[in-house]
């Protein structure tokens, strides 16, 4: 029995509409301007200090490190973490959140939310390379430290992707002048090789003070 032409046309139209809806939804998810208000507030509330600045930026694991200056009392620390951000969003706001401060050294934590959103390790690396290139162009004297995405119980199913991304970031840092890599993955694991529940909040994603103690221990050698 032949399929009526009207059915075929309607089905084709439905598929087109679904594709358009998907593209719009994806565009909304990938719109970095969703953080504009938060970024503007950071800029307003975080003046540019004098002297050598050690700047920490990236997603919520940095944003929630509220007492970071307590860990590094001998230097001037600025925290411009925002979101749940992804690497492409930090690239978008690099002028406001990094370059305007002309830091002596910048510590970047991104990739965590990228992986959770479905991006591949290679895609994330490519975006990180664009960010680093932009910083090197605008701030040739600034040293760059890439902090490895951490493990967390809520995203443990992505373990292999995290490990792959961390390997890519480490190799990239090793071969790039002025870029360092700090591994905070291993210190977050217990004796069974799984995320230590003691260092996570109830959301099984963000860290307690104990988790930040571990980060500070790994980062301290990179802060004179």
UniProtKB/TrEMBL annotation:
UniProt GO molecular function: phosphatidylcholine lysophospholipase activity
One of the Pfam families matching this protein, by short name: Lipase_GDSL_2
The organism's place on the tree of life at top rank: Bacteria
Residue ranges crossing the lipid bilayer per the database entry: none
Annotated SGNH hydrolase-type esterase domain residues: 66-213
PANTHER family in the record: SGNH HYDROLASE-TYPE ESTERASE DOMAIN-CONTAINING PROTEIN (PTHR30383:SF5), THIOESTERASE 1/PROTEASE 1/LYSOPHOSPHOLIPASE L1 (PTHR30383)
Full protein name: G-D-S-L family lipolytic protein
